[in-house]
Amino acid sequence: MRSHRVLGRVRRWVPLVLFFGLGFAWLLSSPPGSGPDENSHFIKTVGVGRGDLTGDDIPAGTPQPDFAPAQWELVDNLGGVFHNPGDLPAPNVCNAFQPTMPFDCAQPPAVSGTIAQRSVHGHYLPVAYVVPGFLTLGSSSTHRAMLLGRLGFLLENTALVAIAIAALAGARTRLSSSSAGLLVLSATPLLLYQSGTLAPNATETLSLVAFVCALVASARLESRRWWWIAAIVGSFAAWTRDLGFPCLLLFLPAVGIAIPGSVHWARSRLRGRDAIAVGLLAVSGAGSVLWQLILKESPHPRWHGFTQLWSDLGLVPRMGLDSIGLLGWLDVPMDSFLESAWAVAWIVCLVALLVRASRRQRLAAAYLGLAYVVLNLALISGFREQGFADQPRYALSLLIVLAILVAEGDRGTGTTWWFRVCCAIAAAGHFSTLIQMAHRQANGLGTPIDFAHVAWAPSGGWTLVVTLMVLVSVAVAFLPGQRLPASGPADASAPYN
Prior knowledge:
Distance between the termini: 18 Å
Number of helices: 19
Helix content: 55-70%
Largest sheet: 2 strands, antiparallel
């Protein structure tokens, strides 16, 4: 019996190890600055690590070479000038938005003293940068600082995934085949790519996921400990990126709808010392909102009539697909067949769960689905007004939370074949995106893969890194599932045994 318990605990943490492994493969195989806006995040990370949270203000109207003149005012408002060590210049990414061109970019030389560098994220919320910035201290080269900064983000993100797993395990969640498959497919290549590069979007997404899981565990177990963990993680999420606190407020009613008794439990915590947790979350949220109102400008959607609204609505499904695997500088989609297989499998899992879900879970899913559409419409309109393209990565947390709230209460059958199918699709999808991006950086897409003759190679060489990609992807295919007894559909509101 004891050996079974130990084995169960080991199996529980396998997904965490694979998450870190996939993120680490991205960390090693991505050239410096090749992540979305990574140069800008690098400058801010190094600055925050040295105590400068925002940088100096940029005078209005200052030309920004990477942006159109119509965007200069916004970028100047958002950005900051950081005075960082001269031996850590921001990397040059000459093949950005050119997938057929390999990473064959001459890098700026190190200089003595300090250098002034502009980050368009200077006025963004700073907390996600603290650990990565601290790890860059003492770095004597851009390459080393970039790897350590990425490692800092990956460690943060892995810790948040650990909290989410511990919360669901603590609530005695036993996943069915469809539930487990849905959660495996919710860890998309885009999310893992961002987790292994300098991208606070992933930290925002995963902190929101950890917050929801902790809140679920708090309600299911009536646990003060998980109540406080939810408050602490939620406070962290509020300071990660623009949508952190708004999404916290969005997810609270979703949990209240999906989890029976959660509202009553929350009300009971508003008395005594546990009310301090609510105050902590409220103060953190208010502080993050105040920071943004004073220091930065956010997209402002505008109404352009029903014709434009209908056109924008047609873009939302495409954005859902892009949130699976649009990589590079968000310009290289994953293989179209695997993208379709991934999306179809995710939808099949969701539909299967909704068919046997409780009315509360269906209402929560409908609420989050509607919120996903509305949020994306607002983002499409707001970014268009500012002259920027759509950003499918920003709303990914809504899809993952929807999956969690539908999956965690499922009481389906114990069959495992469908779970194996989902794992196989996930393994193929992750490996395909990793090897495609390696091909892009080493040789350029459109040419044969030849890792013996490359324009750029990661630390340790391509043989070592590709071996890691293969091992981690194969491990995803054989991800252990839970052995559940066969049973008929049950009310998701029934208590745990």
